[in-house]
Structures are given as C-alpha cells and as structure tokens.
Amino acid sequence: MTIYKAAIKPLLFRADPEKVHDRIIKIGSFLGRCAATRKLAAISFGYRHDSLTQTIDGIKYLNPVGLAAGFDKNANLTEIIPAVGFGFEEIGSVTALPCMGNPKPRLWRLPQHRSLVVNYGLKNEGCEAIAEKLRFLQTRGKRSSPLGISIAKTNCKKTADADAAVLDYHESLTVLEPFADYITINISCPNAFGGQPFSSPKLLELLLAKLDAVKTTKPRYIKISPDLSIKEVEDIISVSGRHNIQGFIVSNLLKNRKKSGLPPETFSKVGNGGLSGKPVEKFANKIISHIYIKTKGKYTIIGCGGIFNADDAYAKIRAGADLVQLITGMIYEGPGLIKDINKGLVVLLKRDGLANISEAVGIDCK
C-alpha cells in the first residue's frame, strides 16, 4: 500500500478517473487469464485465516470482504478477483438490454472527502452478453470464489413505466440466475432514468411477486439506498417478508448532497451523480443496525459504504453485517487494502476474544 500511495496513486489521480478505471479492467482481465499471474497476485495480496471463514445462505466465504457491484460491470475480473484477496465479488449492475450509460464525464474524485461522484447510469453489456461470458468461464472452471450478480432496470425511457421495468428485471434474473451464487435486486441506483420507483412498497410488491415466479434455491438480496428514512426501510423489510428475499445490501450511493453534510463548493467542479465512500458510511451503518435489530438477525446483511480499513469493516459487522463490500477504499488505498482488512479483522477478533467472524455480527446491538 505504501508503494501504491507514494508512487502509483499520484500518477493515476492525474488522469481522467473513467479512463483509469477502464485501463485497470483491461489489465485485470489480462492478468486473470494466466495461471502464473493469478498465483503471483495471490502470493502478493492473498491472506487466509480460519476465523474469517463462514457459510451464509449455503455459500462458503473464505473471508467477509467482497468487491461491490459497480466496479466489474461486465464480469471481466472474475478470474483475478479471488487472487487479489477478496472473499467474493458482485458484478453489474446488469440490465436486460445493453446500456451505454449516461453522457461523459460521469466519474469524479473528491480526495479531501475520500469519496467519488458516480454517474455511470448502469453502463453494461446487457444480460445476454454477460451470461455468455459467464457460461464460457463456467466451462473452463475458472471461478474460485462466490459470485453475486446485481440486476437493475435498463436505463431508458421505456423502463420508467413500472410494468416494463418489472419485465426488464424478470428477463435479467431469468437469464443470469444459473451463473450466480446469489442475486442482488438493485432498486436504488440514483443515476437512472425514472429514479428509484421500487423503493415504493406498492411497486416493490409488484416487482418481487413477478421475480418469485423465477424458481431458484439461490439467495436474493435487495440493495437499498442510504437516502431512505427508517420508515421507508421498514416498509421494504415488510414487503420483503412476503417474498423470496433472504437479505439486504446496505447501501448504494448517496444521492442527497445536502444530507452528506459536505459544503456546496465541494461540487462546483463535478456533475450529477451519487456519492460513494466516507459520506455514505454513517447512513449505511445506521440502516444496518436498524435492520439487524428490527428483524432479530433474520436476514443476511451485506454492509457497503466508507470502508477504508479493518476498523471500518468491523464496525459494520458489529452493527449487524454478515459480509462487507467496498470499491472506493480500494481506489484510494490500493489493492493491498483487502489483505490489510482481513489481517486486521483477525487481530480485532482476538482482541475481543472471538473465535470466528460470525460471532462478531451484531454484537453492538445485543
């Protein structure tokens, strides 16, 4: 991490962030195709400890730290991600139709606030193309850690109609379900045409009823917004209880800039988009603990937002998260962050006299 922050990061941060992201995807895809480079990455970044292993919803995780959806949009990194130390990966969000996303520029850095402004608008190759890619990888047997697939409605005028949007989700789920270890139903993208209609209980009921028709034994999680009030979160929990939902991902990007508490001048040189990283952290942690307490630990919770070190990850776990995800922390701290977090979690478990990470889940709420 020292080399990254001292030499590599300053160079990367001088370039356009989307161009940097695209180059990293190409490099990661190339490295993942070669057994030797995967092994070298595992030696450099890998870390295993029995206290971090757990089985959740029938899925075995070697550690609780995952790559959140939004980084590997088109499943280009599934071979290299385990070697970098992640316990799992979530690709997407994927939509029924290919989508170019919102006009550029659509990604900005806010270094002083350890955040990004993201306005990609669900850019992805579409469910059929991504399914074909995953089918090919499946035949090669190259995937070695759990894979989540996040689905969302295609970012276009047509899916602003609720019935059309429901069918869009349904198509993606039907096509992608065979290749996923779990499915995330993303109802909280802040940058898509038509907003976030399925945060409404009535429309969420409509969506989940349709998705229930796609039979599966694989867990399904709903990704929710940090902008929601506790009442809105409780409404989503209530609707989810009547359908095939096993958990929640908390949370997505923060849309409400006033709520972030950042000064208005912060955004003078950036465009529209949701905030990632540290501005999301307190809102995500509050919702995590509320869901855990409200449901008495019934649902799986994956915590996301503002994780830059082991203490940040542990705070989410102690608040009620079974697993955690990150992107922004890795961009600011480097790929060595995942190893550092996992090693730090082992130290924190020993400090607290706990034998396994599962024992720490929700401990601050008990």
Tell me what you see in this structure.
It contains twelve helices and 13 strands. The model has no long low-confidence stretch (mean pLDDT 97). The chain starts with a helix and ends in a 15-residue tail after the last helix. With 366 residues, the chain is of the alpha/beta class. The strands form three sheets. An eight-stranded parallel barrel has the order 3-4-7-8-9-10-12-13, surrounded by four helices. 39% of the residues lie in helices and 15% in strands.
* E-strand count: 13
- Give the N-to-C terminal Cα separation: 35 Å
Helix content: 25-40%
Q: Describe the main β-sheet briefly.
A: 8 strands, parallel, barrel
The secondary structure category is: alpha/beta
What is the radius of gyration?
19 Å
N-to-C SSE series? HHHEEEEEEHEHEHEHEHEHEHEHH
User: Low-confidence parts, pLDDT < 50 over ≥5 residues?
Assistant: none
Percentage of β-strand residues:
5-15%
Number of helices: 12
- Output the strand order for the largest sheet: 3-4-7-8-9-10-12-13
Shape: globular
Global mean pLDDT: 97
Chain-wise SSE layout:
Layout: H1 2-12, H2 17-32, H3 35-45, E1 54-56, E2 59-61, E3 65-67, E4 88-94, E5 107-110, E6 115-118, H4 127-140, E7 147-151, H5 162-176, E8 182-186, H6 201-212, E9 220-224, H7 230-240, E10 247-250, H8 257-260, E11 274-275, H9 278-295, E12 300-304, H10 310-319, E13 323-326, H11 328-333, H12 337-351
Parallel strand pairs: 3-4, 3-13, 4-7, 7-8, 8-9, 9-10, 10-12, 12-13
Antiparallel strand pairs: 1-2, 5-6, 6-11
